[in-house]
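P.,

For your records, the input lines for the assembly:
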Amino acid sequence: MNDQPTIRVLLVDDEEDLLEYLSKRLLKQGFTVKATFSGEEAIEAANEGYYDIAVVDLKMPGMDGVETQKRLREIQPFLQCIVLTGHGSIESALESGQQDAFQYFLKPVDYDDLVVAIKDAYKKKIEKQDRRFRQQLEELYSSGLGPKGMKKAIKDLRQIYGIE
Amino acid sequence: MTELKELKKVTRKLASHKIELYQTRGYLQCILQNSADLIFATDVEGSLVSFSKGGEKVLGYSWEEVAGRPIKDFAEDPASFERIMGACQEKGSAVALDVPFRHKEGRTVFCNTSLMDLTNRKGQRVGMVGICQDITRWKKLQEELIRVDRLAEIGRIAAGVAHEINNPLAVIGEASGWAGDLIREAKGLSPDDRHELEDTVKKIGDQTRRCRNITHKLLDFARDSAPTKTAFDVHELLKRTITFLEPEIKHTAIKIDLNFAEGPLLVNSDPRLLEQVFVNLMTNAIYAVLEKGGDNGRIEIQTLKANSEIEISFKDNGVGISDEDQTKIFDLFYTTKPPRKGTGLGLPICQSIVRNLGGDITFESEAGIGTTFTVRIPIS
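Structure tokens returned:
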């Protein structure tokens, strides 16, 4: 993982024991991990910090996985979501698909499969983000903004794309 | 003169009665010949004196074979049939539902039976008439319905349990994974201890995966969502299935013969679900052939196209299925494989999928000779 940028992963699941072990393992493998135990907590985290991937449990008390994904993507449009569920209902899977989940896993997920999915989702996220970023930069250059306006616009872009 | 007139009148009357009688007899004969029911008459002793054409079909005997024999001998339980006959004698008639008779070929035939006492003009008993309606098929259908219903109910309960177990299972899996990560980097462990610990953690992981395999299959089984249909070539899907199973076939002497109908076999169905059925049936076939051993293992996949449906059959020359097992193979959790090898879910899942796709699945098998499973699904 040393030759790659750190992938920032947001875990959302009310099963605290699961997140404990999952985050320990992901951390050890070099990911940056934030564990949250409800949808509400995840939204709060997304307002405070920037993430590449969210791993979201579908069925949680309070805000459910589908709603959580929707809200997360409103805050961070390039965030990719991986959905976990203990339920076999394909209907929820399709519903979460409507929220553009990158992948859907039936619990318990094989750890190695999850890591592969996180890396693939990251690739997709970067591609999407780069395309949009170039587009916006071009718009910016052709906008004829003065140096001051340009500086502010770039600062805004930095914030959207989580570049510190 | 008047006597002659009278005689002519009586003769005419007699002739018309004769015609009437003739017509009535023809009418009764027609009923007897054409009814699908077993209609019989016995003498006072209960021995057959008449036996309808329908009876020949219901019980498999010709009139010559049954003439003069006691009717109760054809019932599966002669003693209880005699009791029904007794009731008929007492009250003049008797009705009994679901009476089991024995077909000439040995199988049981269930009949709704009504008996009537026959008396002559003087009120003396001369025998008995019986009408037996064969309801075996209807009864089987009803049993099948009950079975399917029970299966669905078990499936729902099992899926609920599976769901509850998946979460703790996920915790066990990740906890053992974490332990494995730690052991790999731990210092100061003796090689023996390290090996012992690694082995233990690996076993926890393996067993967790085994449980997961079961819960996921159960959830698959209970999932009753509508199939997503697309047009595809069944031949391509079958070839893909074989490629998928290649690792299992490679090191065996099993020969796979493809006997495909000409050209592509296009259907409008759910390829993902069908693939699951094919993989299950092929896995069973491979297992049956390996169980038997020897070098002539052979699995033949045949496809046929009819007007509105297609047929795919998997024929193996493996161990076959014993008569006893044949009645249970579609039962949930019924398996003949040793522990760890089978979950008893494969065939019920296949059946549920194929039915969900509007088709059906049947099999023929002989212990020691082999088994053929046939899947029929509508073209669209």
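Two observations worth noting. The mean pLDDT of chain B is 88. DSSP finds ten helices and twelve strands in chain B.

Regards
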